Amino acid sequence: MIINGVTIDATFAEAFPMKATRAIITAQNEKWAMISAQAMTGFATSVIACGCEAGIERVLDPSETPDGRPGVSIMIFAMGGKGLAKQLETRAGQCVLTSPTSALFAGIDGGTRIALGKNLRYFGDGFQVAKLIDGKRYWRIPVMDGEFLAEATTGQVDAVGGGNFLVLAESQPQALAACEAAIEEMRKIPNVIMPFPGGVVRSGSKVGSKYAALGASTNDAFCPTLKGMTKTDLSPEIESVMEIVIDGLTKEDIDKAMRVGIQAVCDLGATNGIKRISAGNYGGKLGPFHFHLQEIMA
Amino acid sequence: MSALTFTLKLKPDQRVDMSPLVCHKLDGMQAAEIAALTLQNGKRKIRVDELFDIAGSDAQNIVIKNSFGKLDFIGKELDGGRITVEGDAGAYLGLGMKSGEIEVSGDVGIYAACEMKKGFLTINGNAGDFLGAALPGNKMGMKGGTVLVKGNVGERAGDHMRRGNILIEGNAGDYCGSRMTAGTIAVMGQTGKYLGFAMRRGTLLLWNQPQASARFNDCGAHTLAFLPILFASFKKFNSKFADGSAAFNRVQRYAGDMSEMGRGEVLVKIG
Predict the structure, then answer these.
(1) Where is the Formylmethanofuran: tetrahydromethanopterin formyltransferase Ftr N-terminal domain (chain A) (predicted)?
(2) Which of A78, A133, A287, B154 has a 20 to 30 Å separation from B41 between CA atoms?
(3) Residues of chain B found within 8 Å of residue A126, distances taken between Cβ atoms
(4) Which residues of chain A have a CB within 8 Å of the CB of B184?
(5) Boundaries of every domain in chain B
């Protein structure tokens, strides 16, 4: 398959079941809601070493938030429910509770309930106040700037993590520009996050390593500087490869995000140095979710 | 299916225990069976059809017409369905109510919504003393649900209240929120003496400055984030509380009762 001079490989991305949750952070203005959201989703690019994958889903209009203030919707993904709950609680405690004027609300009404403000309330040292409003419990925790308001729980649902595609370009600036264009379009899709810095990862990995202590190492088949010294997957004109990883609530959400992302890359086309779109997989043996690039773009 | 309607034929001198006439107890009963039920009337028992003309068949929607202030225990332990009372109601309206709705067009007696657990109760007139309170000797009053009173309420509203909302468009009598353990009482009108007497936790939300009390300490003026959410939850009611202009989030906060646990609060609208 070729779109605008860009070859779409006959391959697929392989993804895994994860647990996910969403929270809504509000503040006096969008600036401070975003600061808090960025802190809460920081150091959460990969479950390999961060414990979770997290990202900002979108900015919310005051009319969309429970308290009528500007807000930001964030999502956190982890391999298991226990790990997810732990990450949510520590991040909420250190990054939202501490952030000036912030408030924290559930972003998923259904699903398994996990603690959001339920345990943070103990920071109130007995001065905390519970309010049950329309069946939802909120905790009012006295803090130095006034009160921190946090909904007691949020929902945890089954989700999919690890959807991805690779952008192969003739130069590094061209690969980055294509990825930026893709991310801009993909951020318009609900229920997905792209957890890596700016949504883009330049250090895609393969399973295993020559070093016994490491479970993953650089994806040498896609490293352009190794073209002459490893079993490369790159043609001579490829000088840079970047990857976009997507976590989403459902397979369909990731499908949509990949479609708009790849389309945005293809819109730049071969004339802007984009040569191929590929994807990372493990032979289809590890992850139950397969995203076939050509089917998505058909 | 039309509403199961009980129209009062005569006003008995003695009080009537209306507790058998609730939706979940009448569900599936034939008209003749309902007519043959007996109600306690003072010292004697009286057949339902001696007291009421009965019409309709939908037991989930009961209407009591020509009601007056001696019909007690209307909607006792109501568990789903709706009861509409046209006229006044006696004491213990919605006692221990578990779910469903009750609406009274007139006034109600003492202990309305007493030990109520869930559901929605609307009183379009005035309510007597001990609204949403605990029965004498009991430690827990209203435990959930919402009570909306469009008129005034008597003394001891929310006595021993544990959870839920009492919304009062008019005035509240003395000892409003006394011995309250938690929950919210909102009063748009004036409040009487001894507001929040022996209150442990909970919120008294006031539109007007109450009488000063040595038992409550001023915590200053604040903008509280939970108030917009609370007011948003009132929007579904047919009430002044649903009016956007009634909402506020800037309050003077008083903590008390300091002679008790002192974790309660009186929030008074600023401006």
Answers:
(1) 1-143
(2) B154
(3) 263
(4) 131
(5) 110-269
